[in-house]
Amino acid sequence: MIDSNDNPIKAEKRKKLHAMKEKGINPYPYTFDKNVHIEQLIKDYADLAAGEKKTETKFRIAGRLMTLRQMGKASFFNIQDVTGSLQCYIKVEEQTEMDRATFDLIDLGDIVGLEGYIFKSQKGELSLYVQKFQVLTKTLEPLPEKFHGIQDVEIKYRHRHLDLISDVDSRKVFVTRGKIIKAVKKFLDDRGFMEVETPVLQPLYGGAAAHPFTTHHRALDMKLYMKISPELYLKRLIVGGFEKVYEIGKNFRNEGIDRTHNPEFTMLEFYEAYTDYNYQMTQFEDLVSSVCKEITGSTKVMYQDQEIDFKTPWRRLPVMDGIKEYAKIDPDNVDALNDYLKKNSPKPIKLENLSTGEKQMKVFEIAAEPHLIQPTIVMDHPVDISPLTKIHRNNPKLVERFEPFAACMELGNSYSELNDPEEQRARLKDQEAKRGVDEEAHPMDEDFLHAIETGMPPTGGVGLGIERLVMLLTDRPSIRDIIFFPTMKINK
What we know:
- The protein is α+β, with helices and mostly antiparallel strands.
- It folds into two domains: 8-143, CATH 2.40.50.140; 166-314 and 374-482, Bira Bifunctional Protein, Domain 2 (BirA Bifunctional Protein, domain 2, 2-Layer Sandwich), CATH 3.30.930.10.
- The chain contains 14 helices and 21 strands.
- The chain has helices spanning 8-22, 38-44, 97-104, 153-158, 160-166, 168-190, 231-239, 277-296, 319-327, 334-344, 356-367, 421-434, 446-455, 466-474; strands spanning 53-71, 74-81, 84-91, 111-120, 126-137, 194-195, 201-202, 214-217, 222-226, 244-252, 264-273, 300-303, 306-309, 315-318, 376-379, 391-392, 395-399, 401-406, 409-410, 412-416, 459-465.
- Strand 4 (111-120) and strand 5 (126-137) form a beta hairpin.
């Protein structure tokens, strides 16, 4: 039966599906015994001469039918698997009656299994001479019209499977993403870190300034929050005696969506006992530069027509120096901060709700961040915006914190972690008091304070946004380009 909602192309594909079944052809077999990927064939037979055949070895490949050119009793078509694309040649008269019937009912987009030998055409194109042909999946949905990639980003992000089928470069980006995460893990594993997991559902949220997602646990009849950061749990593990721990996992922040933000994202956080932010600056640089070399073969990458060089050491830029250099004002002059923000803030701002430190950081964001193209360690932040960080040993108005930047993007965050339980309690009380005007302020977490009161050794902690690193190493302008399934509004 043809679905009345089908368009003509889809109706024709459904008609062919039913014709296959009527002829006793199974359009959805359970398995196929493939013995090679296309990439391996291309590598092994690259030196084959034009017109040369290798009939002694039979190969079984499987993939999606991407092109079809019928030439009388013979046809050329291209098959695409996860590793690449290969031209195939078939003489229909040489096939069994069942295989001929199958081939007659095949469409672009169908997944097929082939058996044959390798040869090079007279034009020099490596090809498979098909001796056996089998349909593995008969498709009903037509492929995108353009095989060089979907141009409509709404379709690209909402129907990622179509993007991956039609755009080789998009597939390569996600392969590279996997390699980047593997390289990050290897770097930390080789340095003695232990990979751990922390809860996604938490009775209290913390570790970042962000709006949480909430849910309800029916059996316990309690409100829970989705993780905005693993920080407070990883610190509990440091208290418990593990000296080097890391987690690469999903964080969830109920915030806006833009070029560098998605509500669900992947974060690396690692904590190392007996270190501080100075040590972690060097380790962070080493991590990123080594991953860059592992993935690209160099410390240099091109990102949106700008060459970025991750060679160490990176520039060090204290926040207050950045304000002086780029805003041309005294960061301790509150009137100057107010005047700068009134004139330069891209959107209305309620200055009366901001502390001096918050004003300083907003000025830095407006004035300095657009200039941070090459890798830069932005360091020594105001104390009132960093409730989990140790006071700077040389300046009580600052904390020992750094944020690495490249291509004008913040890549992460790091502290000399606060481990004085009395000061930590006082800082969280101050945050709790702000919650009337700042919903992103930290809530009081007595269980976390219990852990700190049990005793946490001096510790350096680091967070790294995996998506932003992937963006830089794959030259992708939007975070949506390197997340398989970015958050999208439901079509109604």
